[in-house]
Design a protein that fits this description.
Layout lengths: L2 H10 L7 E4 L2 E11 L3 E8 L5 E9 L2 H16 L10 E6 L9 E8 L6 H9 L7 H19 L6 E2 L8 E3 L5 E3 L6 E2 L2 E4 L1 H14 L7 H4 L4 E4 L2 H16 L3 H8 L3 H7 L12 H10 L10 H18 L1
Antiparallel strand pairs: 1-2, 2-3, 3-4, 4-6, 5-6, 7-10, 8-9, 11-12
Helix pairs in contact: 4-7, 4-11, 7-10, 10-11
InterPro entries: Kinase-like_dom_sf, Prot_kinase_dom, Ser/Thr-specific_kinases, Ser/Thr_kinase_AS
Enzyme class: transferase
Catalytic activity: L-threonyl-[protein] + ATP = O-phospho-L-threonyl-[protein] + ADP + H(+); L-seryl-[protein] + ATP = O-phospho-L-seryl-[protein] + ADP + H(+)
Length: about 325
């Protein structure tokens, strides 16, 4: 190799060099970076032996508290078994987080790879030409997502809430079946808030972990003495159904205009497009879930019942 060629490799980096990982005795090679979030990154990896592709979620932990949160996510992934919720293939920790400055650990979660990407990706592509989904397809996707949520809300010994339901956290498999992912925000559904300190802690956690344009009103301003329950997810489901119809959450549109999402959510403002292929039944189902007062919001069984009623109504007309 001549000096110029060596110089170019030094400057640009050898593109043929890929990171290798050993996770519990199985060797993987990192193919490419798929995404980055505030707390984690996701890479496409390949099993060196089988050549099968997976998604690798890496969570960098800067403290024992970070490490505890990552361990809780792994624990939930191991316990939860449902066809519409992502499965954990393997996991491990490397390093050790402690109070020593710059001491970090990293959690590795090996997950199935979905080549179709997320529901957000799918809706974004369709939005370019306002290529609306057929209502039967919308309700099929929505009821499958609701089945995943029902599994969490009915979980034993303690009901769980996902707390970050959004179209970006739903993958699509090869058969276009939705698979709920990212259990990093998953937590016991029922939270008793006793005092201003508890309220502020939950509010700060929601600001970190729950996407603003899908976040329930009671998580924007947590009252000092209240009970938060699984109906935070029902609000998010209302935003998901709106996005299935119109490609984005109703509060994504608010955010894009530069208006206050906080005020729009607290006031319960929902604007439907004037030109729409969907009738009042669909809008009523969305508004059924987007009740500002959580006590007026339905539980998941009520949402599923109403969704199936609408499905049956459509099938009867065809």
């Amino acid at each position: 190799m001549n000096a110029l060629g060596l110089s170019m490799i030094v400057k640009m980096g050898c593109i043929c060099t890929r990171e290798s990982l050993n996770i519990n005795g199985i060797k993987y090679v990192v193919k490419e970076r798929q995404g980055e979030g505030g707390f984690s990154t996701v890479d496409l990896i390949e099993n060196k032996g089988t050549k099968r592709k997976y998604a690798l979620k890496r969570i960098l932990c800067h403290s024992l508290e970070d490490q505890k949160v990552a361990m809780e996510e792994i624990s939930y992934c191991k316990k939860i078994r449902h066809p519409n919720i992502i499965e954990l293939v393997d996991s491990t920790f490397k390093g050790s987080a402690d109070i020593v400055v710059n001491a970090t650990s990293e959690a590795f979660l090996v997950l199935p790879y979905y080549r179709r990407g997320t529901l957000h990706d799918y809706l974004t592509l369709r939005s370019f030409n306002k290529n609306y989904l057929d209502l039967r397809e919308i309700l099929r996707l929505f009821t499958d997502i609701c089945q995943a949520v029902k599994y969490l809300h009915d979980f034993s010994p303690e009901p769980l809430a996902h707390r970050d339901l959004k179209v970006g956290n739903v993958c699509l498999n090869d058969d276009m079946v939705p698979v709920l992912m990212d259990l990093g925000s998953c937590a016991p559904a029922r939270v008793q808030v006793c005092g201003a300190q508890d309220a502020q802690k939950l509010q700060d956690l929601a600001a970190e972990r729950c996407s603003m344009t899908y976040r329930a009103p009671e998580l924007f301003h947590v009252e000092s003495y209240c009970v938060i329950d699984q109906r935070t997810d029902i609000w998010s489901l209302g935003c998901v159904l709106f996005a299935l119809c119109y490609f984005k959450s109703p509060y994504d549109f608010v955010y894009e205009k530069g208006d206050s999402v906080n005020l729009a959510v607290i006031s319960g403002t929902v604007h439907f497009p004037e030109e729409t292929p969907f009738d009042e039944d669909v809008h009523d189902l969305i508004l059924f879930m987007l009740k500002v007062n959580p006590a007026e919001r339905p539980f998941i069984d009520n949402v599923l019942e109403r969704s199936r009623h609408l499905q049956n109504k459509i099938e009867a007309v065809v």
